[in-house]
Structures are given as structure tokens and as C-alpha cells.
Amino acid sequence: MTGMTRGYTDSTRTWAIHTYKQTRDQYRSRLECCAAIAADVGAHTNTVVRWVNDELGRPRVVSEEDLPQRVRDLESEVRRLRQANRELSERISLGI
């Protein structure tokens, strides 16, 4: 996929990283900033987090200010995955 990262153009990725650098101080956490950018480009928050981490490096530790949001996001992801698992299990049991 030349010029694209899993369906997103290089210019989208570049814009997202530039926007992160310009707006990070307006958010309580790296994750909150990435979530706002992800909503703008129609990407999953983790996609934008990965782009930012690739460009700027991973944060060494989750900061105290980032921790509550990180926990909420992980709890949400667990709920989503459990729901998907239930749906798949139901489909398997019904032979669909």
C-alpha cells in the first residue's frame, strides 16, 4: 500500500500528527487528544495513538492524569469485546 497506512493516506496521518503537536496542550491527556483527532478523521482512537507513538515515542509510563481516561477506555473496550464474543458465540450455537 504505497502512500497509505491501512486505509488512511499519508497526508491524513501527517495531518493527525501535526494536529496532535499543535493541540495536545488543550487536552488533559495524550489519549483524549488522540480521541478527538480520531473522531475528526473517522479513525479508531488506537490508530491515532499508534501514529503518535510511532512519531513521538510511547509515553514511558501512564501519567496520573491519563490513568482515569485510560481505565475508562480499556473498560469500554472490554465491554465491546465481550459483546462481540457473545454475538459470535450465539451465531456459532445457532449454526449461522
Describe what is shown at a glance.
The protein is mostly helical and 96 residues long.
Question: How does this structure look, described?
Answer:
There is one protein chain. A two-stranded antiparallel ribbon has the order 1-2. It has 96 residues and is mainly α. The model is unreliable at 1-5 (pLDDT under 50). Helix 1 runs antiparallel to helix 2 (30-41), helix 1 crosses helix 3 (45-56) and helix 2 crosses helix 3 (45-56). It contains four helices and two strands; from the N terminus they run E-E-H-H-H-H. 15% of the residues are buried.
Strand content: under 5%
Distance from first to last alpha carbon: 34 Å
The residue ranges in which pLDDT falls below 50 over 5 or more consecutive positions are 1-5
By helix and strand content, what is the structural category? mainly alpha
User: What order do the SSEs take from the amino end to the carboxyl end, as H and E?
Assistant: EEHHHH
Tell me the major beta sheet.
Answer: 2 strands, antiparallel
Strand order of the largest sheet: 1-2
Number of helices: 4
Gross morphology is globular
CA radius of gyration is 16 Å
In round numbers, the mean pLDDT is: 89
Number of strands: 2
How much helix is in the residues? 55-70%
